[in-house]
């Protein structure tokens, strides 16, 4: 085994698995950098949402796209509708991304970040750096997409 590996609990009780510590393990420094980046992205998304939405009076955590007011002429009305449609689509994407970021930050706080929610195996540093909001490993994500 050597000093570079450690025995981990095998999936099959009749086998022994060896996990080599290496470049694909999440360490505290990397986790801190990811958290910092997620918080910065969260702030940017909230700022962007603030530019195109107002707060929903019925739900403090939800936003409602602003309807722009350019005037009463036909071309101004068309421009208002076009911008409002764009704002609605942008709002949905931003809110979805914000939800993913909040979920990732919650997993960091609970100590569950970087663990696949389906197979409970480590997702890996490379995937977490590429997609910090990932909650599934590549193998499980592929299985989900193919089913």
Structure description:
Mean pLDDT is 79; it is low at 1-21. The protein contains 4 helices and 4 strands; from the N terminus they run ββαββααα. A two-stranded antiparallel sheet has the order 1-2. The protein has a two-stranded antiparallel sheet with strand order 3-4. The two termini are 38 Å apart. Strand 3 (53-56) and strand 4 form a beta hairpin. The protein has a single domain (24-146), classed as DksA, coiled-coil domain (Four Helix Bundle (Hemerythrin (Met), subunit A)), CATH 1.20.120.910. The chain is elongated. Helix 1 (28-52) runs antiparallel to helix 2. It has 147 residues and is of the alpha+beta class.
Distance between the termini: 38 Å
The percentage of residues in β strands lies in 5-15%
Which segments are poorly predicted (pLDDT under 50) over 5 or more consecutive residues?
1-21
Number of helix segments?
Answer: 4
On the 0 to 100 scale, the average pLDDT is: 79
Helix content: 40-55%
Query: How many separate structural domains?
Result: 1
Under CATH, the topology can be stated as Four Helix Bundle (Hemerythrin (Met), subunit A)
**What order do the strands of the largest sheet run in, or round the barrel if closed?**
1-2
Derived structural class: alpha+beta
- Characterize the biggest β-sheet: 2 strands, antiparallel
- How does CATH name the architecture? Up-down Bundle
Computed Rg? 22 Å
- Regarding CATH, which class? Mainly Alpha
CATH superfamily membership: DksA, coiled-coil domain
Helix and strand pattern: EEHEEHHH
Estimate the global geometry from the Cα principal axes.
elongated
- How many individual β-strands? 4
């Amino acid at each position: 085994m050597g000093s570079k590996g450690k025995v981990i609990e095998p999936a099959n009780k009749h086998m022994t698995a060896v996990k080599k510590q290496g470049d694909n393990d999440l360490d505290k420094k990397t986790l801190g950098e990811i958290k910092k980046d997620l918080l910065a992205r969260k702030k940017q998304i909230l700022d962007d949402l603030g530019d195109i939405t107002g707060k929903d009076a019925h739900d403090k955590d939800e936003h409602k796209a602003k309807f722009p007011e350019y005037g009463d002429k036909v071309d101004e009305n068309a421009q208002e509708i076009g911008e409002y449609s764009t704002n609605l689509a942008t709002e949905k994407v931003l809110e979805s991304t914000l939800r993913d970021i909040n979920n990732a930050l919650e997993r960091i706080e609970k100590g569950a970040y970087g663990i696949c929610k389906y197979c409970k195996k480590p997702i890996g540093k490379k995937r977490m750096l590429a997609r910090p909001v990932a909650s599934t490993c590549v193998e499980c994500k592929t299985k989900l997409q193919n089913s």
